What we know:
Chain A starts with 5 loop residues before the first helix and ends with a strand. Chain A has 13 helices and 11 strands. Chain A is 52% helix and 11% strand. Chain A has helices at 6-13, 18-40, 46-57, 60-67, 70-80, 88-108, 113-122, 184-204, 206-215, 263-286, 309-332, 338-353, 373-390; strands spanning 126-128, 134-140, 143-148, 151-152, 156-159, 218-222, 225-227, 233-235, 241-243, 250-254, 395-396. By secondary structure, chain A is α+β, with helices and mostly antiparallel strands. Chain A has a 5-stranded mixed sheet with strand order 4-5-6-10-9. A 3-stranded antiparallel sheet of chain A has the order 1-2-3, covered by helices on one side. In chain A, strands 7-8 form a two-stranded antiparallel sheet. In chain A, strand 9 (241-243) and strand 10 form a beta hairpin. By secondary structure, chain B is of the alpha/beta class. Chain B has helices at 15-19, 30-35, 74-80, 85-96, 118-128, 173-177, 213-226, 259-284; strands spanning 4-8, 26-29, 37-39, 46-48, 61-65, 101-102, 137-139, 154-157, 181-184, 189-196, 199-203, 231-239, 242-249. In chain B, strands 2-1-5-6 form a 4-stranded parallel sheet. A 4-stranded antiparallel sheet of chain B has the order 11-10-12-13. A 3-stranded antiparallel sheet of chain B has the order 7-9-8, with no helix packed on it. Chain A binds chain B through residues 171, 294-302, 304-306, 308, 330-331, 341, 345-346, 348-350, 352-354, 356-359, 364, 366, 389-390, 393-400, and chain B through 40-53, 82-87, 89-91, 93-95, 106-111, 113, 116-117, 119-120, 123-124, 137, 139, 141-142, 159, 174, 179. Strand 11 (395-396) of chain A pairs parallel with strand 4 of chain B.
Amino acid sequence: MSGDFDSILDVLHGTPIAPDVTNSLLQAKLDDIYKVLVQALSVRNEVSQAAVDRFDRAPSATQLKLLASPEVWDTVGVLKSHHPPHDLNHAHLQQKVLLIVARLLIAEGGHTPDDTDLVLSQVGPVFVSPAGDVAMTHIHGNRWNRTQMAKIGQTIALDFDSPLAKQSNLTSVVFSLPCLEWTEGEKVLAGKKIERAIAYMDTAAPQLGLLVRNFVRRIFLRKSVDIHKDGRIVGEFAMSSEHLPRYPGTIGLSNPQVTDNTVVKIMESVLHESVHNFLACYETAHGHFMSSDRAYRPISPWSGNNIPNHSLSHAIFVYYACHHLFERCLALGVFEHGSEAEQAEARIGDFASGFLIGRNLSSLFALNHSLNEGLRSVIERMQKDVINCYAYNVYLQEMA
Amino acid sequence: MTNIVLIYADSRDPLIPLLTSIEGLKLLHVDQISRSLKREQWPGLYRCAMDLSEYRFHNSLIFNRVFGLENSEAMSLLKANRLHEGWLHHCIDQITKPAAKRVHDIGQRGVSRTLLPLNIQWYLLAQALPEIRTPAFALGFNGAMPDLSALHPPILKSIWSFSAWKNETYMTELESRWNRFFVEAPMGLPVIVSFAGDKYQLHFPKGITEVSLEAIQQLVTTCRCEFKTDIGEIITFVKGDELTFCAYSPYVGFSASSPEFQDALIAYCKTTTSLCDAAQLAYDSI
């Protein structure tokens, strides 16, 4: 574990060095993705060579989009799991990488007829770009119609309909839910609510709005419930969110269109998962905070559940960030509706409760190695920060 | 004269009738505390305004027996005030801070070192006593079944169940389906060690067996230190020379009826209050 844990707080608080810290983390992540991609394509056959050559010839901005693409990661993940190198399936998967490059080039406008033929034969006449920001519809020949996808915060794509957004994955709290079709009205409503959540964040703690934009480029949205006017409920109601290590730079959200999934709740969910993405980038650059051994699991003071040590370490940062955001929102009075302020007041108490446990949070860990002293120090600092918010709140009246 | 205060949640706690025989003992139910918690507007969060003068917490001996909020109105009051359970324990921590001695650690389950899940107890004991034997176990994650090949035989357990070592009698659905916890059934005969302060008694529920008193003493001392507690039961199994530490429990359901434990408890109170009185006198004379 290298790295200065204090720099995590620099980003959360938006200190002058935060941009440099963020840039270095993002660059490290992209470098890592590139290494993994090249390694996955290291088998020298015609297909893999074509894929690597194509990538190397693409403009650097296009390369970056590709490296940040969840579709690339999905394919690379599968590539890594296949052996031996001469396996025909491996060649097929390398073909998929070429396909992703082709789709991106079509969306960028720098494609060839071979790209069109490849996409039409493998995907069909309609697809979403790997960055999730453009929908392409084939017109004829080599011509495609580009439609800009919904974005929030000017940079984050909302993905309602891509194959990745519609996948089924029983290990995912978002993708395990049933997948119902979005109406255009629901998409607009979901977009507006998420946009308002980001706007509150930008007003109260702009550095956190920046964190979200830097570490989330696409939000996968799952509609799993239809609540009809007559009270009928179709599907499964859940308000879940998830950071998706398999797809760096993305998060998943379920049912933002539902009334109970309020703007305040969405704001919390988006920040929560964004901080996980940020921490994952930090660990890519500097190593894991601690062992991921799961035999001895401390109890989270927030949920009361037994969770791996590593998850607890992330949770401390996540709840610290959420507490900071909500504290700023309340202190600055950013909410437009009284009910939103009430929700935030209720929820901030939950965030704070874990920091007021009467012992150092770092004493909760059950590790088979020593806790990194830098991490211990930062956890103590965060705990003191939150405790200090409430030192004057606890009023006990002892009558003589 | 050092005051003794019992803060409790469960009126069925077998320690209560043992302590109420002590003259001058003050009782404070957790509902009295939770009723006095009032939610305030930001930047306040809660206000706990109750008359504490009769308890004289300063320099007192506190038996904090709030291990759960079942059978109390406190949990519903907390929910009505939209307060996380942690705030109640934070309040208990604040009001008992002036005490000379708190018999147990403060906090909700898993935060209080007096009420830790089994595998964390084993972790802490192994750190303090590397030679101690604890049960082998396997813990699943996210619904996956763990590898049970090293457990002979495996029994499915709750991490919070300290007394049942054959078949688990109660488990939540989360525990039975999601993060399944299997333990190797301990070998030998159970030996329950009840202690109050540094005095302990041995109980043999399934038959008497030889046990090293030196090992028991070391175990009691270590449990008091690691679990921040002066009262409780230690569940062990003994087979031949092998002693297996299975759990520390603050519940004294097994030993409460034992006259020796009762005597030890009274002696603990007398000794501790005397020490507190002496410390206070020494402080006052400075």
